[in-house]
Q: What sequence folds into this?
């Protein structure tokens, strides 16, 4: 029997409590490639670079520093530093029970992210089988609008029956583009964003979600 709904989860800040560590790694990597005024990057990360992937940050640095090759050097440095820090990243509270409850309801879940899919898959293996997800769509698939569309197609339900769980306004924009429902998850970076123009359900962990799913879909996930 086909499910009545599907779920799309962002990775950083939603599935994994990684945004604080990734934010620090962005700054450390920028310092490594020679950026002196880190405040300049901090301001940009809260504004035009909100939700940006590592390549976009690298090109921003290259434009600011006027030094060819900085973008590639930054991406390589960030990726190398991040690979040594992933073991400290924990899943968001209630993530595993939530995924298990979704599967018991015969629904499907996709992950979308601006991180590489292989990086996501490698981390997921430390907490559960990546095969539990209908799809994992990373930055190599395109921007968030594209990965969200791919995930909706993989879920095989109409977009209005998809719940997107994200932590930044960029996630909300992608969900709204297709008419998906949206829940905001608190995260270290997402909480730095300006949410004053949006009124969306907001949770601190996956343990807070069953009541929302009951109200939105009439689905009892327990909890």
A:
């Amino acid at each position: 029997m086909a499910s009545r709904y599907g779920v799309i989860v962002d990775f950083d800040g939603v599935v994994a409590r990684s945004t604080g560590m990734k934010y620090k790694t962005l700054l450390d990597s920028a310092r490594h490639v020679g950026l002196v005024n880190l405040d300049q990057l901090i301001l940009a990360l809260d504004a035009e670079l909100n939700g940006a992937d590592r390549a976009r940050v690298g090109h921003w640095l290259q434009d600011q520093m006027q030094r060819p090759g900085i973008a590639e050097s930054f991406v390589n440095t960030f990726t190398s530093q991040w690979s040594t820090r992933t073991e400290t990243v924990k899943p968001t509270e209630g993530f595993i029970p939530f995924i298990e409850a979704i599967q018991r309801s015969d629904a499907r879940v996709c992950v979308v992210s601006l991180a590489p899919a292989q990086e996501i898959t490698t981390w997921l293996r430390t907490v559960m089988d990546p095969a539990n997800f209908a799809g994992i769509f990373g930055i190599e698939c395109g921007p968030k609008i594209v990965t969200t569309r791919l995930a909706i197609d993989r879920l095989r339900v109409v977009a209005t029956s998809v719940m997107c769980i994200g932590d930044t306004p960029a996630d909300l924009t992608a969900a709204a583009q297709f008419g998906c429902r949206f829940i905001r998850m608190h995260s270290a970076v997402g909480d730095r964003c300006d949410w004053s123009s949006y009124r969306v359900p907001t949770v601190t962990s996956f343990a807070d979600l069953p009541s929302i799913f009951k109200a939105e879909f009439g689905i009892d996930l327990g909890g």
Summary: The chain is about 45% helix and 10% strand. The chain has a mean pLDDT of 92. The beta strands are 6-10, 108-112, 135-137, 162-166, 181-185, 202-203.
